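User: Good morning. I'm curious how zinc ion would be positioned relative to this chain. Could you predict the structure with it bound?
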Amino acid sequence: MERLSEWSNDLMRMIYPKVCEVCGYSLAKGEDIMCLHCSLDLPRANMHNEQFNIIHQRLAGHAPIDKAAGYFYYYKDSSYSNLILNAKYHNRPIIARLLASRYAQEISNSGFFNDIDIILPVPMHWIKRLRRGYNQSEAIAQGIKNVTGIEIGKNLIAKRGHSTQTRKSSYARWKNAQNIYAVTAPEQLESKHVLVVDDVVTTGATLLACCEAIHKVSPTTTISVLTLAVTHLS
Ligand SMILES: [Zn+2]
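Assistant: Good morning! Here's the predicted structure, ligand included:
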């Protein structure tokens, strides 16, 4: 039976070869999302051990942030941006899940996850989620859970949608994101260490709004953040 499924996998690979999301070349057996070459060349940010890295700087606000980790740098014109774009807009949340698992594996030896109690994905307003069919941040949370076993909480909710952030200034983004997020059952987060996860950190407005919403209702909660990508601000 196992041989049969292996054989059908090989057949599927011949008919629909899996390709690297970055360079478009066919993937070898055992590879997923990225070929070995693109995986080695990934512009890793390696900031999970830095005490005050760029994510901390972008999230400087009313909520103290303990640890901050970002997997790789996001440049708009780089083909690595396909990883995020396909996960977010092209119906491929599996990319977000697998990348998150990879990242979790890569940094788990550093002890980054040791004291984390709950993973909280940045929420999406339910209408938007219904339209898209998924929330890529939930896929990231699932990818981390698959490696670390840490539970995913549903305490963060989006009370309303927000207009697109893309063309706004940092201040306008922050104003726009404020009051969107709320926390349900805050008593579950008391004295816990939560990891808020999102796909990309740009100005940090969305993450900051989530962290501030948590801190407001549960000041004893320790908050850390993790994103797959970190944009370079021009
Ligand atoms: Zn490749």
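The chain has two domains: 1-41, 43-231. The radius of gyration is 18 Å.
Let me know if you'd like a different ligand tried.
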